[in-house]
Each structure stands twice: as structure tokens, then as C-alpha cells.
Specification:
Elements (H helix, E strand, L loop, with lengths): L1 E2 L1 H9 L7 E5 L3 H12 L12 E5 L9 H7 L8 E8 H12 L6 E8 L6 H7 L4 E5 L2 H12 L3 E2 L1 H10 L4 H15 L4 E2 L1 H8 L2 H15 L2 H13 L4 H23 L4 H6 L7 H10 L5 H19 L5 H14 L4
Parallel strand pairs: 1-6, 2-5, 2-6, 3-4, 4-5, 7-8
Helix pairs in contact: 3-4, 4-5, 6-7, 6-8, 7-9, 10-11, 10-12, 10-14, 10-16, 11-16, 12-15, 15-16
């Protein structure tokens, strides 16, 4: 079951009786944590009660895909329900969630906090299509854009929203300003598609990020250095650079996988959502010849680790970004 934004508050206050597992996912990790904690308190006043509450992490599930199911089946020492709290990356939680959702559950509530996901991630689809589980997205930028556009009756395509979420950072004030500009550009009752948003947000810093991703995938150290210098000159945010590279390699991995199933390179690129800008399609097509799906997704995982490191603070963002990207560039397939 997918819980749409207008239904979230009522669901969190009183979930349907048949729901035994809930996934909280999205780019706003603070919102993910807050909503999960609030929801968990419906079932336990003391979340540190080891006799009725089990806490699991993605690392604990490695090689133990039945651990969530086993924990859910344990009889609570106190109270009516066993509460199982699970936290980790969407990919590392997927198989264990498949196992537990395939089983009938009683007297249990499983609450999953998944990071590093998108609305198209397999774990999100798993919960959305289950009759006994629910999925709640926590994408603050998407909700902000929807609210601002609604005020002026501006309609934006799903791809346009995807690009807004992808390209705007966690600074709510700055994001609000950029989204308001998009609404002003469309005008009352206007429409925005993916290309409108891409062009409007496609400032010189973002163009530099595209060049960084291209150099990274090409294994071109010299071009990477030049592109980074340009990005710093344009005051590009380090996290935005890493996210831009994540998007590029995720598209590369998805298109490469589509080609492995028999699609042509052009059809594989057309199937991507949001669709890559036409200026990037030739670059992506060239890189498809050298990047296998698993290699591209390995880079995505590495870039996600770098983003978390940058957000932890206490480091030189530019130095960390440059050193990390250089390591990936040197390992690019030739």
C-alpha cells in the first residue's frame, strides 16, 4: 500500500488493522527518523524495552535474511505486540523484507527506515504492492514543490518533480526560492515538463557537474581536475557534485542493465526516468560500451558513502570530494 501525502497524518495516527509492516523512505533522513519514531510510539511507550522491542540494522541482516521474520515471530514478554525496528540502506534490507512479507504475521509491527532509496527502488515497490504493508515517502523538496505549485495552480510532470528533487539540496530556504522561480516562469495555471525544469535549473555550476560525471566515467583524470576547478569557481556545492555523479552512474547502470536484456542503447536511454538531457545522451551511449551494470552501481554505492561522509561535517569538502572522485576515476574501466 502506498500512502500518498494527504493520507500520511491520518495513517500515522491510526493505521489499518491489516497493516503489519511500514516502510519509511526518502532523501529527508530527518523526516524518515521522526516519522518512524512517532509511529513506533503507537505500539510501545518504551522503545528501549528489549523484551518487547527488537532493533536490527542492515549489517546484521548480511547473510541472515530470515532475521526480521524470526524477530517478528518472537512472543513479546510484555504488551500485545512485538515491535521490530529495522534501519539500513534499502538495498541491504531488500531480501530480508521479501522474506518477512511473504509470511503471515500476527501480533507484530515491523517499522523499516530505509536510506539511499528513490520512489522506484525495489524495496519501495515491495511495500507498495503488499496488502499487509505500507510505504511512506519522506521527500521534503517534493512536498515543498507540490505546495508552491498548487498555490498558483501550476501543473508539473512527474519527471519535472524528479529533477527538482535531484538538483535542489537540503537548504529549504534556497530550494523554496528556486521552486518559486519555476512557478513564476510557468505562470498561474501553467505547466512544467522535464526540459523546462532542466533548462531553468541548468546554471553553469550544474553544467560543470555534468562534465565531472563525464570525466569520471571516462577515467580522464586531467578532464576531471579541470571540471572540478570550474565547479569550485562556480561555487558548486560538494554534495550537489556527488549527487550529480550518482544520478549519472545510476542512469548508466540502469541503461546498461536494459541493454543486457536485449534493448538497443538508444531504447535503453529512452526508458530512463527522468530522461537524461539530450546533450548527455551521446556521452552515456559511449560509456555504455565500457560500464557493466554491476560496476556502475558499485560506483553509485561508493558515491552515497561519500555523500554521507560530507554531511557528517568536520572535513574539507573540496579536498574530500576531489580525492574520492580521483580514486573512482583511476579505477574506471578502459
Amino acid at each position: 500500500m502506498k500512502i500518498v501525502p494527504r493520507q500520511i497524518n491520518s495513517f500515522l495516527a491510526k493505521p489499518p488493522a491489516e497493516i503489519t509492516a511500514v516502510l519509511f523512505h526518502g532523501s529527508d533522513l530527518g523526516m524518515v527518523s521522526d516519522r518512524a519514531k512517532h509511529f513506533a510510539h503507537l505500539f510501545s511507550d518504551n522503545l528501549d524495552d528489549v523484551f518487547s522491542v527488537t532493533r536490527l540494522t542492515g549489517e546484521m541482516l548480511s547473510g541472515e535474511v530470515g532475521l526480521i521474520a524470526d524477530s517478528a515471530a518472537a512472543i513479546p514478554a510484555f504488551g500485545d505486540r512485538r515491535l521490530v525496528l529495522v534501519k539500513g540502506r534499502g538495498t541491504e534490507l531488500l531480501e530480508a523484507c521479501k522474506v518477512v512479507l511473504a509470511k503471515p504475521l500476527a501480533d507484530t509491527m515491523i517499522i523499516v527506515e530505509a536510506s539511499d532509496t528513490t520512489t522506484k527502488h525495489a524495496i519501495v515497490k515491495l511495500f507498495e504492492t503488499s496488502k499487509t504493508a505500507a510505504s511512506i515517502g519522506c521527500y521534503a523538496i517534493r512536498a515543498l514543490a507540490t505546495s508552491i505549485f498548487a498555490a498558483d495552480q501550476v501543473s508539473a510532470s512527474r519527471d519535472a518533480h524528479d529533477i527538482i528533487v535531484e538538483r535542489l539540496g537540503s537548504d529549504r530556504g534556497s530550494s523554496r526560492s528556486e521552486i518559486a522561480k519555476l512557478a513564476l516562469m510557468a505562470g498561474p495555471g501553467g505547466k512544467l515538463d522535464a526540459d523546462d525544469v532542466r533548462i531553468a535549473l541548468g546554471d553553469s555550476a550544474l553544467l560543470a557537474i555534468d562534465d565531472i560525471a563525464d570525466a569520471l566515467a571516462s577515467g580522464a583524470v586531467g578532464r576531471l581536475q579541470q571540471a572540478l576547478q570550474k565547479a569550485w569557481y562556480e561555487d558548486a556545492n560538494a554534495v550537489m557534485i556527488i549527487r550529480g555523479c550518482q544520478t549519472y552512474f545510476r542512469q548508466l547502470g540502469l541503461a546498461s542493465h536494459a541493454m543486457a536484456t536485449g534493448q538497443s542503447a538508444q531504447n535503453a536511454l529512452r526508458s530512463l526516468r527522468p530522461p537524461p538531457h539530450f546533450k548527455l545522451q551521446d556521452r552515456l551511449q559511449a560509456h555504455l560500451r565500457r560500464w557493466r551494470p554491476e560496476l556502475a552501481m558499485d560506483v553509485v554505492n561508493r558515491l552515497q558513502d561519500i555523500e554521507l561522509q560530507l554531511k557528517s561535517g568536520g572535513i574539507n569538502d573540496q579536498l574530500c570530494t576531489a580525492q574520492s572522485l580521483l580514486g573512482i576515476c583511476l579505477r574506471a574501466p578502459r
